[in-house]
Amino acid sequence: MKKLLIVLAITMLAQTAQAQLFSRERLANLETFDNQFLSWGYFLGFNSYDFKIEYNNEFSNTQTDIVVEGQTGFNVGLIGDMRINKYMNLRLEPGLYFTQRNLLFPGFTENADILREVKSTYIHVPLLLKISTKRLNNWKPFIIGGFSTSLNLSSNENNPEDNSQGQFRTTTYTNYYELGFGIDLYLFYFKFTPSIRGVFAISDELVPDADPTSNYTSNISSLNSRGVFINFTFQ
Fold first, then answer.
1. pLDDT in tens, the chain (235 residues)
2. Is the Cα dihedral 145, 147, 153, 156 positive or negative?
3. What's the domain range around 182?
4. How many domains does one find in the chain?
5. Are 128 and 199 in contact, with CB atoms under 8 Å apart?
6. Global confidence as pTM
7. N or C: which end of the chain has fewer CB within 10 A?
8. What single string gives the DSSP state of each residue in 50-103?
9. CA 51, 159, 210: angle at the middle one, nearest 5?
10. CATH (domain of 16)
């Protein structure tokens, strides 16, 4: 599903750019929009989260690794944009992200022991630097990157129950770095921006079980979220 989302997003961006580039329309929409020191907007989109798992003891057979099944989630949020110069903008994009990942653990026979559902509702706050090219007709490509933090409203970090009672626990707060690209499209009434961004956690999110020999967490060295965001921005 994640690969499909990425392919669809890249295809959409390429087709949109091609349509704008080869269009006979040469009227410039929103000619002074980018001269604003501050601008605002909102975004809607999709996400696909995964976990990168590092082990204390590497398995000789990859079939015994923990399997992570990601699902497509939904994003919604606001945008605050500050103009630095003609080609650079600083952006704050607080949003609400809904997602779920299923962890399948080897060595068990009962489905209740194999499966752990990790449901997350993140308040995700990135601070990003946007670097754009020169505007051409009514479109302008850009790259974007920065750092972010999230608060997981669904976190069970302080839950006294662990995997022995069916609860896989993760931390409440997580830090990330982000990299992506997109295209600003200047329409008649507003600026529309499709973009795709990779998000990578730099802090360990695992809350170990109380039992140091737990079959679920004892061999996990670190657990880090990573994901793909596809957002559609309106300003």
1. 555 455 455 555 555 545 544 455 556 888 888 899 999 999 999 999 999 999 988 654 545 789 999 899 999 999 999 999 999 999 999 999 999 999 999 888 888 899 999 999 999 999 999 999 999 889 999 999 999 999 999 999 999 999 999 999 999 999 999 999 999 999 999 999 999 999 999 999 999 999 999 999 999 999 999 999 999 999 9
2. positive
3. 2-234
4. 1
5. no
6. 0.84
7. N
8. EEEEEESS--SSGGGSPEEEE-EEEEEEEEEEEE-SSSEEEEE--EEEEEEEEE
9. 80
10. 2.40.160.20
3-state secondary structure of 18: helix
Query: What gap in Å lies between CA 167 and CA 151, rounded to an integer?
Result: 19
**Rounded distance between C-alpha atoms, residue 134 and residue 136, angstroms:** 6
Q: How many residues does the chain have?
A: 235
